[in-house]
User: Fold this.
Amino acid sequence: MLINIKEDLGKDMFQNEILDNLSTGVIAVDNELKVIWVNSACESLLHISRERSTNTKVSQVLVVTDNLSSILKQVRDLALPIAKRGVSLRLPAGSSLQADLIITPLIDEEDVSELLIEILPVDRYLQISHEESLLTAQETSRTMIRGLAHEIKNPLGGVRGAAQLLARELSDPNLCEYTNIIIEEADRLRDLVDRLFGPRQKPTFNQINIHQILEHVVKLTNAEHSLDSLFQRDYDPSLPEFLADQAQLTQAILNIVQNAIQASNDINECNIQLRTRPARQITIGGIRHKLLCLIDIIDNGPGIESELLPSIFMPMVTGRANGTGLGLSISQSIVKQHGGLIECKSNPGNTCFTLTLPMEPSNE
Assistant:
């Protein structure tokens, strides 16, 4: 008898481990429609915890506009699976999520012992498609710039060399001022082309605390603008340390913060919120990550024009007359080298940049 119990426990643990590694949210409920288990993807999707959800009514965990209980009873009584498309789920923070629900009865000795609810977030699939398109567009842009840079730097080297030779032949020292201008401008253009590619060095991965990096950015920014504080913090203290390049991540976050300040009409009215949260089972660039760190940088500035928004991470794209259009491009390159992605949503008075960073060793 003990052997059978151990075998059953081992089987349940194995099945739970499989379900826990799915990117689809899964909830298991018993005959009384009480939650007996949720997987990690469901915790992240619905912003709930497994411990608090267990033994509670499923209607308290999965809040939908339709009568969920009657649907579950129908599946239980008829022992037939059912799919509900385009269901609106209400999340604890007040936001909503569009998803498809697939409810499957688990039959044990001709009776339904449990119900399995699969949550397929429609919004998330659209987001994955958007992310893949964004990464493809950025890689295409970098390839084009790489070829263009080669064509620019070659003649620049020739111009610089000719100016140096000319300077040696000039008998009047005052004329060297003009050759110096040619050399300096050639160097400036060369440096500009180099900056288009972002950081030249690959990240050096060490254990970092993301909140220490954010606080360092806060200190740098407040010191530069001689203000007590521009920031509000909303940190999740449960986030563990993970492998990343501290200097590069600092630069990536600082670029976004500086952009927000520069876009503000009045720095004294500028407010920036820094928020961190964990996330689970997210696919970026075709790679699924079990655990990730989300960093939201939210400002109350005028917002980004909708026509400009799809291309803000492209080099040389800027909404400011005196901007270079390199800051966001460099930040995206840094985060991409960490296996992550930066996304932006913007409305007047609320612009949010979200950095998604895998909290596991990079494959690059």
